[in-house]
Amino acid sequence: MTSARSAKRAPKPTEAELAILAVLWERGPSTVREIHTELGDRTGYTTILKLMQIMTEKRLLTREERGRSHVYRVTSDEAHTQRRIVDDLLQKAFGGSAQKLIVAALSAKKSTPDEVDEIKRLLDEYKGGLK
Amino acid sequence: MTSARSAKRAPKPTEAELAILAVLWERGPSTVREIHTELGDRTGYTTILKLMQIMTEKRLLTREERGRSHVYRVTSDEAHTQRRIVDDLLQKAFGGSAQKLIVAALSAKKSTPDEVDEIKRLLDEYKGGLK
DNA sequence: ATTCATCTACGAAACTTTTCGTTGACAACT
DNA sequence: AGTTGTCAACGAAAAGTTTCGTAGATGAAT
Q1: Cβ atoms of A61 and A53 closer than 8 Å
Q2: Which of B26, B25, B33, B31 is nearest to B71 (CA)?
């Protein structure tokens, strides 16, 4: 056997794929038409269709038929996929240091003191979950 | 004019470029040989050389001659580049929510309580810097 | 029944990124 | 002077990603 479409882990999505995932996260299960509309006129309909077909092959999406069209949904949840992506970035750009990444995120986002407090609350929550 | 190599802002590095940047961040200014050694035998020497030449064209790196070889250094500092990358990811995968990203970073890294405390300290520092 | 709109499927073009083979320069060594 | 090792330069192949044109199916409207 060489490279059949067998049971593999979901690979890291490409840029264009990520744009589609983001819409699916926001809207929930959707048709190609819906995604295409949401994404605006930057890309043609068949481009989106093709990408979603490829994503289905890669197991990033599943689909079911509804009438004449297909409804796509993401296979693994938003948090899981985001963790994958961040983990990858953490290794490649931050030498594995979550702290550096968080600092970068804060200054990129220019968070307000209130938001920082909210983040601190999340940290406590996370710490609580560890025990 | 269409696309001359003029005064442009540094573009987002590709994956392979990022691997090189990471080594330069860690080691400081280095020769191609040094980067190649550090990166192991996964890729050939000329591949790294070519990439670094391209990166120099793109102004991600500058270089100066030292004897027969060239010493490359990054143009903009680590934090700045990391912020760029994170900002991009923030928009594309996290709907602009720094909180989501931070949570993802924590669980990807499986941070310990001590590390979480350290991050909280950084947050306070950051908050202090805002005033 | 013909036309029209909408959908999937397929294939290939266009573009980007990564890889490496080859060449020529240069210096150190014999 | 000839051989050997190391380097930058260059070009182009290979691989990966994104784009869209075209075709065929199906249902709705005339």
Answers
A1: no
A2: B31
Cβ pair A86, B101 in contact under 8 A: yes
Whether A117 and B46 have beta carbons less than 8 Å apart is answered as: no
Q: Which nucleotides of C are covered by protein (CB under 7 A)?
A: 6-12, 16-22, 26-27
B79-128 residue pLDDT tens: 999 999 999 999 999 999 999 999 899 989 888 899 999 999 988 988 88
Structure tokens at A30: 């959707």
Q: Which nucleotides of D are covered by protein (CB under 7 A)?
A: 6-12, 16-22, 26-27
User: Cβ neighbours of residue A57 under 8 Å, at least 6 residues apart?
Assistant: A5
Tell me the sheet residues that pair with B63.
Answer: B72
- Cβ atoms A64, A70 nearer than 8 A: yes
